[in-house]
Amino acid sequence: WSNPDTLEVWDLTLPCREFQRLRAIAWLNETPHRAAIDAALQTIAQREARAIDPYHATPHIDVVAVTTGEPDVAVCFIVDVLMYHSAQSGSDWAYHHIMWCEATFQGDQLVSDSAVARDPIYISESDYFEGDGYDRAEMVRRVRDAGPV
User: ∠ CA 46-32-99 to the nearest 5 degrees?
Assistant: First the structure.
């Protein structure tokens, strides 16, 4: 929204998306199907993480939105996996994989799901450790605010 008198511009998109995210989490906390939905989201996240690295990947889930409409419920969420590689030469590096996902449920049954991977983010050893270091949560927030790919 723009104020023509002062030429100040306020970006209401970020607070709106954050409000939408918090509403989605509140809805998930209240639904009687929470356990089944949580389990399905974990299964999807694990599947996507194993596609990156079948042995060491530990995914994180960030719920973005929930759309309800009888009888379906769609959950949009981000799965991210940070893969750190230690090199014998001492030049370690990491890749941050971020996927935008959606799962559709009827009651407590998963009906369909999809995941779209963004290009992995390369992180050098110096970027990972120096200064404030690599901020995984900040990068996920940026992807969340930008929306689906």
Answer: 25
Looking up tokens 């709106």 gives 16
Amino acid at 147: G
- Residues sharing a CB contact under 8 Å with residue 68, sequence separation 6 or more, in sequence order: 27
Residue type, 101: C
DSSP 90: S
Q: At 99, which amino acid appears?
A: M
**Per residue in 110-134, pLDDT tens?**
999 999 999 999 998 888 888 788 8
Q: Which two tokens stand for residue 85?
A: 């590689």
pTM of the model: 0.81
Three-class SS of residue 8?
A: strand
Nearest CA to 144 out of 45, 82, 76, 83 is that of 76
At 19, list the tokens. Answer: 């409000």
Q: Exposed, middle or buried, 130 (CB in 10 Å: 0-12/13-18/19+)?
A: exposed
